[in-house]
Amino acid sequence: MRAKPLVDRVAVVTGVSRRLGIAASTVTELLEAGAAVYATGWPNHDAEQPWGLADGETQELLEEWAATGEIHWEASDLAEAEAPRTIVNAARQRFGAVDFVAAVHARSSHQALAEVTAAELDACWATNARSCVLLAQAFAELFDAERGHGALVLFTSGQHIGPMSDEIAYAVSKGAIHQMTHSLSDALIDRGITVNCVNPGPVDTGWLDGELHEQVASMFPSGRWGQPADIARIVRWLCTQDAAWLTGQILDAEGGFRRWASLDRFD
To answer: Catalytic: 170?
Structure first.
């Protein structure tokens, strides 16, 4: 059996509430790798979305994870300006350090250009983009390089590959994350922290079903959607010493998704 590569390391993972989410799979992977995890999420947002959130779902996850490693979870609304610093400081207080931050959280938004409001643009900016800068800032201030390589993992959404005109506020905020990656990586590399950004492509987290779900699956060479665990394994790798020479990169982890060749299937 291979030694766990993240023993005695501490990770912060945001966006944790739903079992089917990428964040939940990321927690599972990091715990299995030996890290202690300080997880946060905002169930109110998921409960308002079409996919919903089952009563007690987050608590059930926590009970399962507690049997495999050190885990703590708090509700946190990253639209609040002080939330990123509060999260990072609380994680250090609880576990003694913070070595990795996986910013998996996102505010979903489905407003086209004719519908989008200033309030929605501001909300997506604050939750999706501003929070990542403030997480990076708080992380850098307390990171201890003597503990080893640190990593900040951000998430974008493929808006740099294809248009998302029905999700203007979301796409713009995710584009900001894409563009901040290189600058944040330069700002943090002298502290021993790498910064990379994952575009997971379509991942089967319960947001689509029926015929359209099957059509999207057919656009992958494998004939299946991306799964949360596919992306979580990439996050886990980015936190290991094996990935310490990689920084400032956008990783299009889409499994060969053929978005352009298959658009006619949606006509």
So the answer is: yes
